[in-house]
Structures are given as C-alpha cells and as structure tokens.
C-alpha cells in the first residue's frame, strides 16, 4: 500500500471507528565468520499497540552495541549454520529491524511481553 493509499485508508478507519491491530515482525540474522548470512523472523501480536519507535528504543538499549544478542536469551530460534568453526564463528545474532504486518503471529508472547523480558545483553 502506497503512502497516499495508507492515508486514505487511515482516514476511512478513523471515520468508521475501525482499527486493524497490527502484529510486529522481529527481523534478525546470524552472520558467520565468512559473512554468510542466515535470516529469521518472529511475528508477535501487539495488542497494546506499542509504537515501533518505542519498541526499537527499548530493544536497542538492551542489546550489545545496539544490535547484537544471544538468541537463547531473547528466546528466538537460533540461526547458526550446522558447520560451526570454533576458531572463527561466534554466537551472537544481529537485530535487523522491527516492522508492522497483518500476517498471523508465529509467537505466542506479545511484543509487550517480549520487551518486558529483555535483560541487558553482555558481550
């Protein structure tokens, strides 16, 4: 949907008191020592309508250098490749983005629960 269409759609929704609850996609990846990338996503319901700006601010404040994290600590699927090399590979995953979607959630916990469970990641 283009911006003008979205503006018109938003206006129509506001006139009819119809609102669509959007889910949020947490996009992330694993990048190995050879710069090969494995991408993943988790779609979380957002019934509290937390803004993307607020969610990104809270998320980045708890990540290593605003972008790195351990998948098990954020309780998201691990994206490591099967051919792990202890001499070169690392265990960090990388936050890519948050975006709104109308797709069905793939996670049971909400965005609010996800953000509330964050702990400061340590290198």
Along the chain, the helix and strand elements come as HEEHEHEH
User: Strand tally, please?
Assistant: 4
User: What is the beta-strand fraction?
Assistant: 15-25%
Structural class by sheet pairing and helices: alpha+beta
From the N-terminal CA to the C-terminal CA, the straight-line distance is: 40 Å
Explain this structure.
The protein is α+β, with helices and mostly antiparallel strands. The protein has one domain. The chain contains four helices and four strands. It has helices at 3-16, 52-60, 71-74, 111-116, and strands spanning 23-31, 37-44, 68-69, 93-101. It has a four-stranded antiparallel β-sheet. It is globular. The chain starts with a helix and ends in a 7-residue tail after the last helix. Mean pLDDT is 85; it is low at 1-12.
Please tag this protein with its features:
single chain; 123 residues; alpha+beta; four-stranded antiparallel beta sheet; 4 helices; 4 strands; 23% strand; globular; disordered N terminus
Please describe the topology of this protein.
Layout: H1 3-16, E1 23-31, E2 37-44, H2 52-60, E3 68-69, H3 71-74, E4 93-101, H4 111-116
Antiparallel strand pairs: 1-2, 1-4, 3-4
Write a brief caption for the model:
With 123 residues, the protein is of the alpha+beta class. The protein has four helices and four strands; from the N terminus they run H-E-E-H-E-H-E-H. Strands 2-1-4-3 form a four-stranded antiparallel beta sheet.
């Amino acid at each position: 949907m283009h911006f003008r269409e979205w503006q018109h759609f938003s206006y129509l929704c506001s006139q009819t008191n119809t609102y669509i609850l959007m889910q949020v996609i947490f996009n992330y990846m694993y990048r190995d020592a050879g710069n090969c990338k494995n991408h993943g996503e988790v779609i979380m319901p957002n019934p509290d309508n937390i803004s993307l700006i607020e969610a990104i601010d809270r998320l980045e404040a708890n990540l290593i250098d605003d972008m790195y994290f351990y998948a098990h600590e954020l309780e998201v699927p691990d994206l490591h490749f099967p051919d792990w090399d202890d001499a070169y590979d690392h265990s960090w995953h990388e936050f890519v983005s948050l975006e709104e979607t109308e797709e069905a959630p793939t996670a049971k916990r909400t965005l609010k629960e996800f953000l509330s469970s964050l702990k400061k990641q340590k290198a």
